[in-house]
Amino acid sequence: MITFVGAGPGAEDLITVRGQDLLKEADIVVYAGSLVNPGLLSLCREDCEIYNSAKMTLEEVMDVMTVGERSGKKVVRLHTGDPCLYGAIREQMDELEKLDIPYEVCPGVSSFCGAAAALGAEYTLPGVSQSVVITRMAGRTPVPERESIRSFAAHQATMVIFLSTGMLKELSAELICGGYDPDTPAAIVYKATWPEEKVLRCTVKDLAETAAGEHVTKTALIVVGGILEGGYERSKLYDPSFTTEFREASVPSAKEEQKETAPGSESEKRDREER
Ligand code: SAH
After folding, report:
1. How far does the centroid of ligand 1 lie from the alpha carbon of residue 258, in Å?
2. CA atoms within 13 A of residue 3's CA, in its CB half-sphere
3. Does pTM surpass 0.85?
4. pLDDT single digits (tens) 43-57
5. What's the CA angle centered on 202, arms 199 and 204, to 5 degrees?
6. Which residues form the signal peptide (predicted)?
7. In degrees to the nearest 10, what's the CA dihedral of 90, 93, 99, 101?
8. CA separation for the pair 195, 93 (Å, rounded)
9. Nearest to residue 150, comparing CAs of 163, 126, 133, 130?
């Protein structure tokens, strides 16, 4: 069995309990050395074979994993954050399927969650944004034109931008061109959850200067949107005048008082479903 394991965003204790157990039991670990915290490898047994995939090709990675698995060894492929985002796992899974080798995925805490924690932010605020766009600028890996930053910017939803710290001037221009006000709040979170984490707050127009001022050139996420600053609406879920599946309203809502809406009315049912 080969298990793809999410290592979490950086801090050694942000791997899952399951991921930790898999590392402890592994005979072979292939880890993404460019971003995985090497401290996690101290969980491995003394006799565990450890490979850094930053120095390997896909073919070499597959060779280590498949030869190991076929000789009955437990193999862990350790990816940063959660492997489902920019992890290049599909191509590995497809190779394993061709060879009839079983695999599983153990999820991890993605860096976009680590960044929200560092910012003390909620990406989905009522009255501001109820969606998060996770994307990147095109680099050596192209991004389909229909997914351009400017087209997503038109939605004014919260955006978390990966793999783009080297292109911040272009990123600002795209965001503004797509419809973000140049003064929209933005943040750069460098190495979220690592001891050297930096949280830089700025606006859409001065992303590049802000990063340059702190010598941030990589391993950062850019967060953009009204959720970073300013007002929002209270949640319906915890509103005393709101009835949910688990709690009866303790005070009448302003709307109910005004309209004397009977309980169980269509509007009340709709409210319940919409929380
Ligand atoms: N699968 C990973 C993303 C890998 S792509 C995840 O779920 O987080 C690598 C990019 O992720 C980096 O260029 C950077 O943009 C971002 N990244 C990874 N770890 C980070 C961290 N601790 N803080 C900020 N950004 C991080």
Report:
1. 50
2. 20
3. yes
4. 999 999 999 999 999
5. 125
6. none
7. -170
8. 33
9. 133
